[in-house]
Write a structure and sequence with these properties.
mainly alpha; 6 helices; binds flavin mononucleotide; two-stranded antiparallel ribbon; 139 residues; single chain
Length: 139
């Protein structure tokens, strides 16, 4: 149920973002609100059975930043059965994102390095106890 709820929230989030952008607004998803999920729940006065999944800031964009190159469709879409990512497609995407990070932020990194870094170590270990406290994922 927690997974289903999270997926549903993601679907809602994307629709809200698309609707906002169609009206000329800009938005930023805020996963940050889960960094201290207990404090977020306290500030928002969340009762049992309510879990903050994401925040979203909407407004009139003050900037028009360059877009980060997206993974090409062939790296994400499989037809009929799972298809592993082609190593050349991945290498090309890494080169593309390295150039992007260099130009945008003067950072010497690429998509794969960013992913590896973000998956290192335990991320937000308090989330599971929080879910239990709110009455979820108990079985
Ligand atoms: C699921 C998700 C959570 C995010 N959480 C945050 C956040 O907490 N704070 C923030 O400044 N940006 C957050 N972002 C926004 C990204 O940092 C980035 O600005 C946004 O995805 C657009 O840039 P991109 O084209 O590089 O993806 C989040 C984006 C996603 C998709």
């Amino acid at each position: 149920m927690v997974l289903i709820g999270a997926v549903d929230c993601g679907i809602i989030a994307q629709n809200v973002m698309l609707a906002a952008e169609s009206l000329g607004l800009g938005g930023v998803y805020l996963g940050y609100i889960r960094n201290d999920i207990n404090r977020t729940a306290e500030i928002l006065k969340l009762p049992k059975y309510v879990v903050p999944m994401f925040g979203m800031a909407l407004g009139h964009p003050a900037q028009d930043p360059m877009l980060r190159p997206r993974l090409p469709l062939e790296a994400m879409v499989s037809e009929n059965h799972y298809q592993p990512i082609d190593s050349q497609v991945l290498a090309d995407y890494r080169a593309l994102t390295r150039a992007y990070y260099q130009e945008r932020s003067k950072m010497d990194t690429d998509w794969a390095e960013q992913m590896t870094e973000s998956l290192k170590g335990g991320i937000r270990p308090e989330i599971l106890p929080f879910l239990h406290k709110q009455g979820f994922a108990r079985k």
